[in-house]
Amino acid sequence: MTTTRKSDTIFSKAFDEFLSEIAELASFAARFFREGIKPPYEFKEVLNQCYEIGIKSFILVSITAFILGLVLVMQSRPTMVEFGAGSFLPAMSSISIVREIGPLVTALICAGKIGSGISAELGSMKVTEQIDAMEVSGTNPFKYLVATRILATTLMIPVLTVYADCISLIGAFTGSNIKDDVNLTFYINRVFEALHYTDIAPAFIKTFFFGFIIGLVGCTKGYNSKKGTEGVGKAANVSVVVAMVGVIIIDMVVTQITSMLGYL
Amino acid sequence: MDRTVRKNILLGLFVLIGLILFIVGIFLVGAKNEMFIKTFPISARFTNATGLKVGSNVRYNGVKVGIVKSVKLINDTMVQVDLQIEENKRGFIHNTAIASIVSDGLMGDKLVNIISGKTEGVPLKNNEYVMVQNPLKTDEMLQTLNKTNDNIRVITDNLKSLTTDIVSGNGAAQSLYKDTVMANNLKKSFSNLDAITNQVLQVSKSLQQVTNKIQNGNGALSEIINDTVLAQNLSQTMDKLKQISDELIKASGSLTKTVEKANSGKGPINMLLSDTTLSANVQQSMINIKKASVGLDENMEALKHNFLTRGYFRKMEKKKRKEEEEK
Amino acid sequence: MATELNSAADQKVTGKEPVIEIGHLKKAFGDNVVLSDFNLKIYEGENVVVMGKSGIGKTILIKCIIGLVKPDGGLLKVFGKDISKLNHQELDDMRTRIGFVFQSSALYDSMTVRQNLEFPLRRHRRKKITGTLDELVREALHNVGLENTIDLMPSELSGGMRKRIGIARSLILKPELVLYDEPTTGLDPITSEEITRLIMDLQQKYKTTAIIITHDTVMAREAANRIVFLWKGIAYKEGTYDELIHDQDSEIKHFFTR
């Protein structure tokens, strides 16, 4: 029990937990690609999850995106005007919204809302034996519950981001008009003049990864949650934290790659 | 079942609108970036394209006419900038037009600005080059400097041989001494030369400052190039140099004549010899000219090593070598 | 191996293949040994009740049978096939012949009662089951007397109703073997009795073999042909209700006279 027994930790307790967390996510992702892509496909359930994830997050994402667009312009306006660059406001806001704010805000909001939702749902299904029941009913619960949700988040976060970008730009336009009188045509012209495909493509591509990580983390935490209601709550909590950190790390990596490719 | 159908319809609508927004956005961006407009290509060659990117705007007299398609190095000193000009603007840009890289406002992007030429020309055709105004007119400046330097050297050489003659009391020099008219001429020439060499020294000094500034500028090279005050200074300096060199050419011409005369022993030289003031003047002039010449040489050397102007000298060397080979 | 197993049952149905054959089954979770050497044979038409204290491994036992839990060792044959040697498809095929009633009913929260009942039919549609989806669902609901709940969500049902729907869902595939995991736990005595009655009726109607896990002695008395008392990881005692209730072993006495 004492000296001869193997130590309970390899490194430190926290680092061990961190490593096993990564291993858990990786094996789950591997399982997704191994099992999720094989027939039979659960198309109906994917659509259902897309509805749950996409449409039910729309209002929240919209409100946040609008307010952030508005605030962005109101905050940066005084400084820009001071430098005599007031006319760059539309260009600046469009680039920051499309490149960063739209994708990131959508992903973070969804990590909070969808990530916790998925892990709480799967966690309680696990606790109440619904996952076992599915397995017994001849439906692979991994495919039916996990693969569909990961696929749905991967597909829906980009769509939500498109909405978030547009609504955020409307917010920025509103913000420009609070202290200034900006013509809509002028605004749209400036916004799209400032944007290039090199702004849109990396930002759009990274949203798929955001969606994937949100779905993956939510499902992993829920599916592997410990028995008991406490375990479910903890799973939901941890999944939000991990998903958010994951989103931000992906954002950093994508930015680095984009800049290495010279698109920055 | 009804509920599922309703859900799916809503979902379909949601995705469809998202897709439409995305496509419209892409199209708008494309339209603003000339992706869907018929264009024709022209190019411009700059020595420096700091801040210019693919997609940067191209303006003609302030009106947007296209974008930068690519920026590439073609040799160690030249950057080729390919421009995509809207087809319907084709007739406006003539071969006399001049392109330059300017900033769009204080914090703005760099863009290529083309201004109409001073003279009438013919419209540019596909893949033709538009003339370029480089940030520094280094070529011209260097040419001027070269000429000045050469002139001074000639004068110095002549004066050297003259003084040698005087000092060694050659027969020919004696006659120069006696020729009072000639002596007066010489005196005048020397004082002129004195003034000129002083001027040369001054200009050379300011030029030295400029080159120092460029050389120390390193990373902020573009700043210096775009510094209009400095550019003005430079062009003023050059103008001055040109003037001086012209004067020097004149002075050297008259001196050469005098020296030739002296060498051929036409005038009396005694007067010159007894006139100590004049002698001192000659000596002083020579020292000054030598100094100026050294200073200019130094400047030339500095410019030779300068990032901006290196290419010019290499070209010159190449040309020389080629000419020699041809001979 | 058969000789060391229950002789009474063997004699009763000689020459017949047992539906379930368990020999020396082992299962441990870390240091916690749940099943150490469990032996049991169940023949067609039998209602076997497995009794024992909570947390002693009764649920693990039936989860092993249906392949939800992998045993550490021992023999486990269901319908004459070794569970551990089945591939995924074969296991799924076998599961269509087994119904499993979960302790917590395990109704899918996000689905209506109708969708819950339809769910096993999505993949497990066996040829011998005839009729449209709707007919099958209505028949299953009729069996448990809850036809009017068809479009309700599980959250709108009471505990007893959820149990009934759970049973209906397990029986919708007309299985040959039904595994009940504590079907009366958490219910009031009257509802318990109703559920017991329902299970007995359905057993008779569909002529299934059943393993019922319970610590409800009333249910054991009503339903059991045979009772297995699980303790210390083995089939500690076997017999009819009457045999066990008069058993002098302190553990069993304690359990039945509680």
Architecture blueprint of SSEs:
The complex is a heterotrimer of chains A (264), B (327) and C (258).
Chain A: H1 13-35, H2 43-82, H3 89-127, H4 130-136, H5 141-179, H6 184-194, H7 197-223, H8 229-260
Chain B: H1 2-32, E1 39-46, E2 57-60, E3 63-73, E4 79-86, E5 98-103, E6 110-115, E7 129-132, H2 138-168, H3 171-178, H4 180-217, H5 221-226, H6 228-263, H7 270-274, H8 276-305, H9 310-326
Parallel strand pairs in B: 1-7, 2-6, 5-7
Antiparallel strand pairs in B: 1-4, 2-3, 3-4, 5-6
Chain C: H1 7-12, E1 20-29, E2 32-42, E3 47-51, H2 58-65, E4 73-78, E5 81-82, H3 88-95, E6 98-101, H4 113-118, H5 133-144, H6 159-171, E7 177-181, H7 189-206, E8 209-213, H8 217-223, E9 226-231, E10 234-239, H9 241-245, H10 250-256
Parallel strand pairs in C: 3-8, 3-9, 6-7, 7-8
Antiparallel strand pairs in C: 1-2, 1-4, 4-5, 9-10
Provide a descriptive summary of the structure in words.
- The complex is a heterotrimer of chains A (264), B (327) and C (258).
- By secondary structure, chain A is an all-alpha fold.
- Chain A has one domain (41-260).
- Chain A has helices at residues 13-35, 43-82, 89-127, 130-136, 141-179, 184-194, 197-223, 229-260.
- In chain A, helix 3 packs antiparallel against helix 5 (141-179).
- Chain A is elongated, with a radius of gyration of 22 Å.
- The termini of chain A are far apart.
- Chain B is of the alpha/beta class and 327 residues long.
- In chain B, 62% of the residues lie in helices and 14% in strands.
- Chain B has helices at residues 2-32, 138-168, 171-178, 180-217, 221-226, 228-263, 270-274, 276-305, 310-326, and strands at residues 39-46, 57-60, 63-73, 79-86, 98-103, 110-115, 129-132.
- In chain B, strands 1-4-3-2-6-5-7 form a seven-stranded mixed β-barrel.
- Chain C is α/β, with parallel strands linked by helices.
- The model of chain C is unreliable at 1-13 (pLDDT under 50).
- Chain C has one domain (45-69, 87-256): 3-Layer(aba) Sandwich (Rossmann fold), CATH 3.40.50.300.
- In chain C, strands 6-7-8-3-9-10 form a six-stranded mixed sheet.
- Chain A binds chain C through residues 40, 121, 124-125, 128-130, 132-139, and chain C through 63, 66, 68, 92, 95-96, 98, 100, 102-110, 119-120, 122-124, 169.
